[in-house]
Design a protein that fits this description.
The protein is α/β, with parallel strands linked by helices. Helix 6 packs across helix 8. The protein is built from nine helices and ten strands. Strand 2 and strand 3 form a beta hairpin.
Length: 301
């Protein structure tokens, strides 16, 4: 390992629906975290890897900070806060359309103060805010903590990627590469299948349904066709909380489930670079959000 090689872990923390997953995908340059215009999209701590000359940054995208109502919610909150203590740098992402430090952001700030970690404040959605209001918010936060930098961005416009990466690099120590330079996430193919199907469900379903589902990959096997082409046979189950939800997910004559499955298959083929034969079923499991054996899979290692 070269003596001038830097590496380290960076967590992205913030309230729900503030744009963390959009930002992490932008920083990595690949889709590693699912995105949807709904709160609590991310459930686990997803690792995403950025490799640059003489530098490797491992980002950890965390569940949004929220008030937990189930064991799943408690695990998600524990995961989000737990990453702060174990990283080199914290990216604190804030919605700049708020004119004050909200109660949720105040709680996160207190966790950061307690950790005394090097923290970069990212003010997102600046395209929706007048300049004078943005300056007031920057001043407000600068009085709260000695941030290494305050960077205003619009995550969906993807313009401040280099500035953020350069700022992070300043605060990392010399060390080894933890992952192969060709890797950009530590998620397994099965996890990518589950998250991609869930993303499409979040996208297409009514507001009340998606947060009550989870996806489990039952089978994933690689074979060759008669034409010697590789293809994955994938079988997955969408679990939901109620029979009424099951009907919505399946849709009239299976139309919604087909829409979810087709959209997921197309994206997975692009991500994995191989043909996918995807079959998806829907089952009801009414209390899964409070079942220890299920929610433990969302717990950060």
């Amino acid at each position: 390992m070269e003596k001038d090689f830097k590496s380290g872990f960076v967590t992205i923390i913030g309230k729900t629906n503030v744009g963390k997953s959009t930002l992490i995908n932008s920083l990595v340059g690949e889709k590693v975290a699912i995105t949807a215009n709904k709160s609590q999209t991310t459930r686990t701590a997803i690792r995403a890897i950025v490799n640059r000359p003489k530098l490797q940054i491992i980002f950890i995208d965390t569940p949004g900070i929220h008030r937990p109502k189930t064991k799943l919610g408690e695990i998600m909150l524990e995961t989000a806060y737990g990453t702060v203590a174990d990283v080199d740098v914290v990216l604190f992402l804030v919605d700049s359309t708020k004119n004050e430090i909200t109660k949720g952001d105040r709680i996160i700030l207190d966790k950061i103060k307690e950790s005394k970690k090097k923290t970069i404040l990212i003010l997102n959605k600046i395209d929706l805010v007048k300049k004078e209001k943005l300056l007031e918010l920057m001043e407000m936060y600068s009085k709260e903590y000695n941030f290494e930098a305050i960077i205003p961005i619009s995550a969906i416009k993807n313009k401040k990627t280099e500035e953020i990466l350069n700022e992070i690099e300043k605060h990392l120590n010399y060390g080894p590469a933890y992952y192969d330079i060709d890797e950009y996430t530590d998620q397994t193919s099965r996890q990518l299948v589950e998250e991609t199907i869930r993303e499409k469900a979040l996208k297409f379903l009514d507001e009340e349904v998606p947060h009550g589902i989870y996806v489990e990959t039952e089978k994933m096997s690689l074979r060759k066709t008669k034409n010697n082409e590789e293809i994955y046979d994938v079988e997955a189950i969408i679990y939901c909380l109620r029979d009424s939800h099951k009907g919505i997910i399946i849709g009239k004559q299976g139309s919604m489930l087909k829409r979810i499955g087709t959209s997921a298959r197309i994206e997975l083929e692009r991500m994995l670079g191989v043909k996918i034969n995807l079959k998806v079923w829907v089952k009801v499991k009414s209390d899964w959000q409070d079942k220890d054996d299920i929610v433990k899979k969302f717990k950060s290692n």
